[in-house]
Amino acid sequence: MWHVPRPQRIPALAHWIPVECLDESALGRLALNALPEAEASRAGAHVATCESCRARLDAVAGGPSPEPGWEEAPTRTVDAPVRTVSQEGALPRGTSLGRYLILERLGAGGMGEVYAAFDPQLNRKVALKLLLPSGSEAAREEARLRLLREAQAMARLSHPNVVPVYDLGEFGDRVFVAMELVEGRTLRTWLEEEPRDWRTVVRTLAEAGRGLMAAHAAGLVHRDFKPDNILIGRDGRVVVLDFGLVVGRGIEAAATRAFHPEAAAEEPAPAPLDTPVTRQGTVLGTPGYMAPEQYRGEEAGPATDQFGFCATLYHALYGTRAFAGNSTATLFFAASEGRVKPPPPEAKVPAWVHAVVLRGLSPSPAHRFDSMESLLEALRKDPAVRRRRLLVTVAAGALVLAGVGGMAKLAHARATRCQGAEARLEGVWDASRKKAIARAFEATGAPYAARAWESVQQVLDGYAAELVAQRTEACETTRVRGEASERVLALRTECLEQRRGELHALTEVFLTADAELLENAVQAARGLPELATCANVDLLGARVPLPADAAQAARVARLRESLAQARAQWAAGRYKAGLEVVRPLVAEADAVGYLPSRAEVLLLQAQLEEGFGNWEVGVRLIKRAAWLAEEAHDDTVRAEALVGLTSMLGYNATRAAEAHDVFEHGRALLARLRTGGRLLSELHSAQGLAFASEGRAAEAEAAQREALVAAERSTGPDSPEVAVVLRRLANTLTAQGRHAEALPEYERALIIFRTTLGTHHPRVGSTLVNLGTTYSELRQHAQALPLLHEGLRILEAALAPNHPFMPRAHGALGMAHWKAGSHAKALEHLRRALAVSESARGADHPDVAVTCTALGEVLLDAGRAREAVGYFYRALDIQDRALKQDHPDLAAALTGLGEALLALGNSREAQGALERALAIRVAARVSSVELGTTRLALARALWTTGTEGRVRARELVRSAESSLSGHVDGAELRDRVASWLAAHP
Prior knowledge:
By secondary structure, the chain is mainly alpha-helical. Among the domains are: 7-64, no CATH class; 91-245 and 285-380, Transferase(Phosphotransferase) domain 1 (Transferase(Phosphotransferase), domain 1); 384-415, no CATH class; 843-983, Serine Threonine Protein Phosphatase 5, Tetratricopeptide repeat (Alpha Horseshoe). It is built from 41 helices and eleven strands. The chain has a six-stranded antiparallel beta sheet, covered by helices on one side. Strands 8-9-10 form a three-stranded antiparallel beta sheet. Helix 10 packs antiparallel against helix 12 and helix 25 packs parallel to helix 27. The longest helix has 32 residues, at 449-480. The protein starts with 23 loop residues before the first helix and ends with a helix.
């Protein structure tokens, strides 16, 4: 392959002495990079300015005409051939790579193979990128570092438009990366499937551009953006692939260490992401999409990715490459001189889009956009939108022109026919309504009132703008452009009017804001029904139509208005007030007999009953709502009912199996509807809650990760919905004893909540409690206690004293004080937690059992075993009635009871409790620390039973010792195990 001399060999061309044209020998040696450095510099400078030599060099470097699409081949070093792998060399189905089982090979590139595989531990398919074997040792190490760097780069990113990395492992002498398996096709294949209009192309590439933008924000540059590195999933999700050439901010410092050993001696070894893996004098990338600075071997930056993005966008828009050439040399010169091919004559791409592409393809990085964000913003500014807004003015001016009056009247009529959607928001969401709500929020006196208002206003401004845009677009589609029927317009208008009614009802509730409402205000605003549904004509048309009788239709309209009021109360957390509105509507809905309204009323009543504490009633009603919605062909209501039912059942461990069945029904429905939005995230998260209630923490983790992907895709990576899922995900990690892994998830959730809800919101306080608890589990008491105290202060200022979360906050602080060595403070907070929990939940609630277990543990540690036994027995009495007999929560109380009975000298009863605890914990695959605690306690009980018991006792403690080896959280228990073994030879 031809290699362009590196930039340090080529000073400014003005300083060069012209040379004569090169002969064939010199051209050949230049193409092979075989000229001495000085001679190569002079020859390269001459070729850059000589058309004749450039054409001859192209012939020498290019050789025979290459196969079509050669420049689209997998990423490679420009000076090294691509290694291809035959299908015969693929790993057979069923091959084990670590815990993964190979299913099939998906493809191979210049550096690795990609397989579909199954992860039995988390019950999901994954994609495995496996480093290819062979080559020199140096080449293998370089490829290994490149794959490690790709894994680190992708793991650093958490964005819906970037494929997430799950795991990294080794298979023999080969390295593999496990990542999400996105079922779909590349952009290239997507473009070949059918003609795509320019708007669809720009919208699709913009999603991939957001993935690049996230990479740049993380300090990463992709360097190989092209059609084959963009994947479009079956659900429409667009993701960026193959970060094998990514470069991070630390690359220059790492390069200095690599070539200056004395510097390396003073600094720690670089991580793979900061290790330079490009040999000096080589160029990486794909010709045809590489920026000029990449051909020259210069440092790549975000502007380099802009060039690749615009080269790809050009290809997608026009069906051809942006630059002419059949070799690396000709493509380099075309890119360096900005010789972009003119668009094909038949292309229907607006000039303004073409101008954006041309700017991104500027030879100089300085002449491109300031950032990917600026580029994407430029692609959003469609002048046609502004022209439509000016059409009314133009048409009105034309009225005064003689001879064109009829045409002007027609233009004016067409332009004004669909105006006035903004007027429909008067009294719903206008300036006076905003001022009134702002005053109501401020009057609550809540410390986070101002931030809550700011977030609510931002959300509702966006909702109102989209409502206006959809109403206008629906009208223009039918009555201006004639692309849809009047029936379609009626369906969309009816749906949008319902949404306007929901918005109106919510703002009415906001006018009566109090502290309880303020806590849920942002969630209520963000929970307004999705407007995208109103554009789905197939979905709207499938429902049972409105009654033909005008009087009955009017009754349905009034019913919907009342229903919107009740739904606003539910969203604001005012369950009692909502029930007062919705309960009378049940009889009215039955009397009207319109099935969709009956289903909606029952769904809302179920949600309100469950929120008010009538769980059984809620479950019964939401099932009926789902059945009625199915009968009415109202898939939107049915999907929401199935998601809600999964959540209701999932919180109850005894009904979790039923929750899993409902989840499957909901998942199938959403798949048929091709809905990947809020409901899909809520459904997966609800399934995670069901797994967690059963004590199946690993499966709960997998479900919450699925929910996180869906939430980020539908609501953005920094939304409160994402933060809620992040907390639930962190809870599943905590349940597995993976406290260090839970920390960053809690921290990210905290940042999102603080940004969107304000620093004094209860969710900020509760997340601080989660964080403090995690630090306490890691024995980092200096960090834990301040966070817990701050969280408790926020909660006490924002919530009622008997709020259900208050016992958890006091309990967490009590346990942290215990682990920090203060029994007195621990008991003070735990007793307060018990009193509040009994008041808020009732004396027999499972939360009360958790607090009783904690009190027993502290009392036992304080030497008060007899008091501790009473609390352990009470906890078990509650849990035996509320949970399954093998639920993991029982094991904590059983272990504590066994240790307390041992302290009182009752070894036989202690052994019984501990045997049951051990069986539960082994079956539930709990953390090594929890399992080791029970094994050690049981060994102590067995030691008193004779020789046979002593043999088993040592086996148990040896098992505990082995499982705790290298466990970050088990240092204290390891010391206790070692002491016991030393004392019991």
